[in-house]
Amino acid sequence: MTAIPQYTPSTPAALVGFYRRLIKLPERIPFSLVQLAARIAVAHVFWQSAQTKLASWPVTLQLFANEYNLPFIDATIAAPLATTAEITGSVLLFLGLFSRVAALILLGVVSVIQIFVFPENWAEHLLWASLLLIVLARGAGVFSLDYFADRILGRSK
User: Helix 31-55 crosses helix 122-138 at what angle (to 10 degrees)?
Assistant: First the structure.
């Protein structure tokens, strides 16, 4: 019987093998956890934004009229539209219900903010858009009402 050569942690081959195993560990993270984290993070941002708007509606109307300066739409229409989109999108995203629709809604909000309101905050908007694109491209994941509904409705076929 031949003995298998033993490598001690100090040998280069052992270090390389350890490094390869170490960098592959994140691949074991279930993607549904990534989807859940993306949904909750973005939902929180837009929920907080909507709550701030609702907390002082007169100030919100002034901001939309004077600071945001959205073209083609009056502030009295834009403010409730944006607030409704933020509330609806964040709740649906948090629950994982109609998640892709919610992601599209919030991507629209992010686009308007980026193009017309705060173009200098592109890095933050890119982060939000990236998380929303995960949901748009791959869905809400197993920790969602979308997944539950698909399982229930899928079995009735």
Answer: 130
